[in-house]
Design brief:
With about 60 residues, the chain is low in regular secondary structure. About 10% of the residues lie in helices and about 0% in strands. It contains one helix and no strands. The protein is elongated. The model has no long low-confidence stretch (mean pLDDT about 75).
């Protein structure tokens, strides 16, 4: 078994997609970024804060 991205799988191999994810960007209503569509490289160039609700107490890097 291999867990990877479909684009890395050889054409002669079959695969199953177990799930799909959505990533969201949250910004203030006065921020002009809200109307733009960014490439992955453009998003990566900006400072970021990652918040994950995987813990029941919702505490993480955003609390530091």
């Amino acid at each position: 078994m291999l867990i990877t991205f479909p684009e890395f799988i050889l054409d002669n191999l079959s695969y199953v997609t177990p799930f799909e994810e959505q990533h969201l960007c949250v910004t203030g209503d006065k921020n002009t970024f809200a109307a733009d569509i960014f490439t992955l490289a453009q998003v990566a160039a900006h400072p970021q804060l990652m918040v994950s609700p995987s813990r029941a107490n919702l505490r993480g890097s955003h609390d530091q």
